[in-house]
Amino acid sequence: MRLSQLKPGETAVVTKILGHGAFRKRVMEMGFVRGREVTMVLNAPLQDPIKYKLMDYEVSLRRAEADMIEVEPFDRLKHDGRATRHPDTASHDPAKEDNGEEFVAKHKIINVALIGNPNCGKTSLFNIVSGAHEHVGNYAGVTVGAKAGTVKYKGYRFNIVDLPGTYSLSAYSPEELYVMRYLNQEMPDVIVNVVVASNMERNLYLTTELIDMNRSMVIDLNMYDELERSKAVLDYETLGKLLGVPVVPTKASTGWGVDRLLDTIIDVYEMKHKDVRHIHVKMRPELEKGISQVKDIIKNDPTVPANFSPRYLAIKMMEGDPEADVQLRNAASYKEIAETRDKEVQRIERDLNEDVSAAISADKYGFIQGALAETMEGNVLEEQKTTRLIDAIVTSKVFGFPIFICVMLLMFWATFQLGSYPMEWIESLVSWISGLIGEHMADGPLKDLLLDGIIGGVGGVIVFLPNILILYFFISMMEDTGYMARVAFIMDKLMHRMGLHGKSFIPLVMGFGCNVPAIMSTRIIESKSSRLITILINPFISCSARIPIYVLLVGAFFPNHGALVFFGLYLLGVIVAVITARLMRKFWFKEDETPFVMELPPYRIPTSKAIMRGMWSKARQYLSKMGGIILVASIIIWALSYFPRYEMEQVPQSYISATIADMPEQLHQDKSAEEIDGLVLNSYQQENSILGHIGKFVEPVVRPMEYGWRTTVALLAGAAAKEVVVSTMGVLYVGEDDADLISQRLSRPSNLTGQPPFTPAKALSFMVFVLLYFPCIATLAAIARETESWKYAAASLAYNTVLAWILALLTYRIALLF
Ligand code: GDP
Ligand code: MG
After folding, report:
1. In sequence order, which ranges of 353-464 are alpha helices (DSSP H)?
2. Nearest CA to ligand 1 atom 25
3. Closest CA to 18 of 39, 34, 38, 36
C-alpha cells in the first residue's frame, strides 16, 4: 500500500520510493529510506499536507508525494509470524521460509516494464525471461495491450510487463498513449529500454525521452548477434557512462546475456550501479531557455504530481503534448505554465524560424549523433546524406584540423583585410566632419569638447564597426550551420590534454567576438570544474573590443607585417589560456572524468534573414556601446584633461625654457613665437590637468615599459570597455591639425620633443599588455554571475594584470634588442 493510505496512529515500514529521480532523492534525504518506520501523526484540515513521524522527528508531505511512497503496515508484518521490523532481513534465504509458498518481502519485488520500438525483441525477451509463450513476430503491432509475467531470480521477484512498441512518447498513436498512461499509473521500479543494436540512431530517440523522465532505467542492447555480424563496433560501456544508463547486450532469441541484464536491473534497483546518473539531453540555448522557464514553474509547484520529472513535463508541454497537459491540468500553477509555454514557443519559433517540436527532435538526434560518433565505429547512420557526407570530411582525422585552421585564417583575414576598406570610408567621413567643425565653429570649450572629446574618442572607435561585424558574421555562421559542434568534436582530444572537454572550445571561439556571451555560453558544459576553468581562461581570448587597439598600432608601426603581428597576438592569448588551464587543473581542481555527450546537430543553411538579424543586433549593440559607455568615458576623460585651465602667465619660466630646449631645430624655423607658446601651454595644460596628476601617480607601475602617463590613463580607462583605450588615446594625443588621425599622432615625432609618443617596441609591448590585462567590467560581472562568486572575478583581475605586466615587460625588453 501507499503511505498516503495510512490512518492516523498507524505505523508502517517503507519498502519503496516511486517517482522520478530528483523526487526520490529529496524524499530519501528527508529520511524516507527503505526499512524505516513511519507513523502517521495527523492530517492537516484539508487532508493535505499529511504529518508523519519518522524516527524521532516529524515531517509533512503532500498527499501527492505520500502517494509515491510504498509501505508495508508494521502490524501485518508482525502478524505474519515473521516478526521482523526490517524487511531487509526477511527473505535473505527464501528456501528456509515455511509453508511452501515462498515469502518475498515487498521490497524484493521489482516491477519491470519493457519499452522499445516495435520489433526490437521485447516479446522475445519477455518470453525467455518469464517462460511465457507470447507470440513474437517480425512486424509492427504484434503486441496489443500489455502482457505480464513473473520470474524469481537471486531472491528477487521480477514482475515483467511487455508493453506495446513505440517510437516516441508523444501521445498520438494508441500504443504511445498506452505506454504513457502505464508509466504514469503503474510506476514501474525499473524501465528496461530495449534497443536494436543495428539501428541505434532511431531507437535511441525513445531513450532520450526516457532519460528526460529521470526514472530508473537499463538499456537492453538487443540483437547483439546482428551487430557482431556487421562490421560495426560499439563501445556500449562508454555509451552507458555517457548516457548515465547502464547498457547490457543481449540476444533475446537465444537467451544470451539475459542473466547479466537481470543482475544489472537488480543493481540499478538497489542503487548500487556506478554508471547511473541523471543527465540532460542538451538542446540549443534558444530551446533550453524556454524549457527551463517552464520547468522552474513546475518544479516550484508542490501540487504537480511527482510521477514525471519537471524537465520531462516541460519539454512535453513545449511540444504541445496533450498527455502532459492532462498531467498538469489540476496543478495550481497550470495557467502560469501554459502562458509561459505559449510565450516561449512563440519566441523560439520566431528566433529559430522552425517549429518547436521539429527543433526539439532535431536536437535530440544531434545528441544521439554525438553519443554514437564517440562510441560507434563503422556504423551506417541513418542521418541525412548531406550531413553524413560533410561530416566524413570535416571531422576526418586527416582533414579536420587543416579545415578548421583554414576557416580561422579566413575569418581573421576577412576581419582585418576586407574590413579595412569600409574602415577607410568611415575614417574619411570622421575626418571630414571634424574638418568641417574645425573650420566653421568659433573657438572655445564647446568646440574643444566636440573635436577632442567626442570625435577624438567615439570617432576613433566607431571606424572599427565593419571589422567587428565581419568577425561576428563568421562566428554566427559557424554556430548556425552546425560547424561549431564539429569543431568541438575534433578538438576534444586536444582539449582533454588541457584537462578540458571539446565543448569548452565553443566558448573559446565565441570569445573572439565578446567574452561576455562566451562566458554565458559555458552553461553547455556539464562538468563544474571544466566550466569554471573555461570561464576563467576566456578573457585571454582576444575579444573584438581589442581589435581597435591592434589595428591602430599595427597600422602605425607594422604596416608590412600586419598579419603576422595579429596572428601572434591571438596565438599568445590562446597559449596563455592553455597554460593557465593546465595550471588550474594541476593545482586547483582535480581532474574530472565524467564523460558527456557532444551533440552533433544536422547541418543547416542559415537563412539570410537570421544572419541579417544577427548582424544588425550586433551592430546595434556596438553602436549603443558607442553612444553609451564610450561616449561618456570620452567626455569624462576629455574634461579631466581639459580642466583646470591655465593661462600662459601661470606657466613657470623653468617649464617653458626646458620644453623649448627640447624642441627640434626645425620647429623654431617653421613656427612663429606665438605658435610655439601655444604648444608649450597645451603641454603644460595637459600635464597639470586632473588626469595628468592621476596618470603621473599611476605611471610608476608601468615605468619599466616607458608607456608614459597618457598611455597609463588609457589602460586604466580600458576597465570600462576595451574600446575606451583607443578613444582615450584619441582624446589625449591631440593632433596639431584638426583632421589628424590618431595613428599619425602616435607615430609622428611630436613637435615638442621631437620623439614619437610610441615606438614599435613600445607598441608591441602595449598590445601584449592590453591583450592580457584585467577584463572589462562587463566581463568581470559575467564571471561573478556565472561562477556565483566575486572571488573568481577578483582572482581573474589580479592574475591577468600581473601576468600582463610580466609579459609586456619581457616583450618590451626583447623587442628593444632588435
Ligand atoms: P517486439 O515487437 O519488440 O515484441 O519484437 P519481437 O519479440 O516480436 O521480435 C521481433 C523479431 O526479432 C522476431 O522475429 C524475433 O525472433 C527477432 N529477435 C528478437 N531478439 C532477437 C535477437 O537477439 N537476435 C535476432 N537475430 N533476432 C531477434
Ligand atoms: Mg511484441
Report:
1. 356-375, 385-394, 400-413, 420-440, 445-448, 460-462
2. 223
3. 34
3-state secondary structure of 186: helix
Q: Mean of the pLDDT values across residues 134-151?
A: 64
**Mean pLDDT across the chain, nearest whole number?**
83
Q: Residue 667: pLDDT band by 50, 70, 90 thresholds? A: low
pLDDT value at position 376? 85
Which residues, 6+ apart, have CB-to-CB distance to 493 below 8 Å? none
Residue identified by cell 581589442 is 546
Mean pLDDT to the nearest integer, 705-717: 87
CA distances (Å), 166 to each of 228, 319, 361, 527, 580, in order? 25, 17, 15, 33, 49
Which ligand number lies closest to the CA of residue 197? 1
Q: How many angstroms does the Cα of residue 251 sit away from the middle of ligand 1?
A: 9
Q: Which amino acid is at 785?
A: R
pLDDT for the residue numbered 754: 66
Chain centroid to CA 211: how far? 20
How far is it, in rounded angstroms, from Cα 196 to Cα 200? 6
3-class DSSP assignment, residue 1: coil
In this structure, what C-alpha cell is assigned to residue 444?
Answer: 572655445
**Rounded alpha-carbon distances, angstroms, from residue 800 to 39, 276, 537, 573:** 59, 40, 10, 11
> Which residue's entry shows cell 524549457?
291
Q: Which of 253, 254, 256, 261 maximizes ligand 1 atoms within 8 Å of its Cβ, making it the mutation to test the pocket?
A: 253
CA pair distance 241, 595, nearest whole angstrom? 7
List of long-range contacts for 687-692, beta carbons under 8 Å, 24+ apart: 688/644, 688/646, 689/640, 689/641, 689/642, 689/643, 689/644, 690/640, 690/641, 690/643, 690/644, 691/637, 691/640, 691/641, 691/732, 692/641
Residue 53's nearest CA partner among 8, 2, 100, 109 is 8
Q: Which ligand is nearest to the CA of 140?
A: 1
Strand partners, 57: 54
CA–chain centroid gap for 379, Å, is 30
Q: What integer is the mean pLDDT of 432-461?
A: 82
C-alpha of residue 6 to centroid of ligand 2, in Å:
39
Atom number, ligand 1, closest to the C-alpha of residue 226: 26
How buried is 351 (Cβ within 10 angstroms: 0-12 exposed, 13-18 middle, 19+ buried)? middle
Identify the pLDDT of residue 96.
41
Rounded Cα distance, 329 and 400, in Å: 50
* Spacing, Cα 135 to ligand 1 middle (Å): 11
Ligand 1 centroid vs 594 CA: distance in angstroms?
A: 34
| Spatial distance between the Cα atoms of 237 and 190, rounded to a whole number of angstroms | 19
pTM for this model (two decimals): 0.69
Nearest one of 200, 25, 212 to 120, comparing CA atoms: 200
> Which residues line the pocket of ligand 1, CB cutoff 6 A?
116, 118-124, 136-138, 142-143, 165, 222-223, 225-226, 251-253
* Residue 84 alpha carbon to ligand 1 centre in Å: 44
Residue from 114, 119, 161, 175 whose mutation best tests the ligand 1 pocket (most atoms within 8 A of CB)? 119
